[in-house]
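ok trying this again, last paste got cut off
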Amino acid sequence: MLNLQTASFFGQKSYADLKNSKYSSTQSSILSIQERWNETYKSLSPYMQQVVDATLESAKYEFKRRNPNKKYWSDIELAEAKDAILNSIKIDGTMQRQLDIMWVLSIINGFLETMVVPIQVYRPNPSIDEFLAWDGQHTLVALYLIATHIFEENPSKVIIPVNIYKSSLKAQMRANFISLNSKEGKKQLEAIDIWEQMIYGVRVDGSTNPLWVEAEKKQQHIERCGLFVTSKKFGDEDQPGAISRLQEINKLNVDSVGYLCEYLTHVTKLQRPTVEKELVMMAHYFDRCRVDNIKIDKKYIADLAALTLDLWDADFSPNSIFWIRASNAYHHWHNSSSIGFSSGRFNKEPVHGFPFLIAQLQKSFNYPIPKNDSKSNFWPDVEELF
């Protein structure tokens, strides 16, 4: 494997390094409700902060309009469970997905007492009435904002319902968190949320769950190559090193993820994010190498990256010259075949892109390459290649 440097010039950490640093600690990240809100709010761009400010004001207005008889926190009638002081509850940041501020505001906007489920908590110290929330952080933050921003009450005097779990087996609770938030009626966990929980589960809890351990090994490759996984909801999918499509990472085995990440580092030079179709095409390529038992080493990856950069600038974006050439080759093939009278429909996916890529590598790449596994009969004429 390549020994790639992930730090930026002048000793400054890259954006990917900063994003991945949250996984570096083997300890829980404990934050108060206000700290959790502030941390998330400050990470937003100035424009998004303005959007949040405006949306919060709108949600407060809508709450008051829908609840004209509620003037104080004591007017709110929540489900009966164990009572806990709002300020006594902190959030274990490694056991919760990243806070989605807009979801919090949507809870306030459509607030109904009967929809508030008691917060799931446990006592890190059985002798002290302080709690850590392992599920329900969005409801918890919404209740905090209602108490402080709408009723302007002291959170140290506000009582909310909680379900107190006597177990402190974090790996078990983390698995429950994933299960509970994959059911109807809850804000569904996205692929990135589950990914983060698996990494934390191994690094913080010491989980030996085979799927989680495999994900953590993939994360090691991603970090080593100066990349990071993200989602469009975080607004940083355009940052250098960003991988915003986890489907392909989840499909590949650990070694193939390592090869893919090294390739991406070569072609992006850590100056741009990974393009979605680039990830789809090259993940498919390295997976087929695995199936066909093709040996891959540093030189293989470096020369493959150099070739794709030389021929089409390693650009798989939808309007790139790669897809233009492949599309032209497909339509010429289709028109010259006896396949029928239709004009043919070219797909910018492996079904048509992979035959073109394999044909090109057969012409230009002096290494073993995988077989074409496309279900399409398309095969480009050699004159259509680069």
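PB: full thing came through this time. The two ends are 30 Å apart (CA to CA).
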